[in-house]
Write a structure and sequence with these properties.
Helix content: 40-55%
Radius of gyration: 20 Å
Number of strands: 2
Strand content: under 5%
Order of helices and strands: EEHHHHH
Structural class: mainly alpha
Largest sheet: 2 strands, antiparallel
Shape: elongated
Number of helices: 5
């Protein structure tokens, strides 16, 4: 069984945090997680081409592979994972960099406001027990 570490760094010029203990399983003699049928690595160009075709087929315009990184961080934050967990998942070195990717949605803010105000989803306030 071989293990490989994902590359660090990204197009923003940030250096990603080391991924200690999060090694990726690889099969056979390949040091890659995903390989073509002949066990060769997929090229960046091939991945981009397939992604563009899939995005177009889904009717998505101005959508890029890197946008998935933003989407993943946003989904994790809005499902209740802490900033520290999202930061570790994305491999960002600082919370500041994680915040460039993950965003809190209006629905999450509304739910939080309702929770601290005592209002339920219907806008009514729970009765206080005496």
């Amino acid at each position: 069984m071989k293990f490989a570490r994902p590359p660090s760094g990204n197009h923003h010029g940030e250096q990603e945090a080391p991924r200690r203990g999060r090694q990726l399983y690889t099969r056979g003699d390949s040091a890659r997680v995903f390989t073509s049928p002949d066990n060769a690595p997929y090229t960046r160009r091939a991945i981009a081409r397939v992604f563009r075709r899939a995005a177009r087929a889904a009717g998505l315009k101005d959508f890029h592979f890197h946008d998935l990184r933003h989407h993943g961080a946003t989904v994790a934050l809005n499902r209740g994972f802490t900033s520290a967990v999202v930061q570790a998942l994305g491999g960002w070195k600082t919370e500041r960099m994680m915040k460039r990717y993950g965003h809190i949605t209006d629905a999450t803010l509304r739910a939080a406001a309702e929770a601290v105000s005592g209002a339920d989803r219907n806008g009514t306030h729970a009765r206080r027990h005496q």
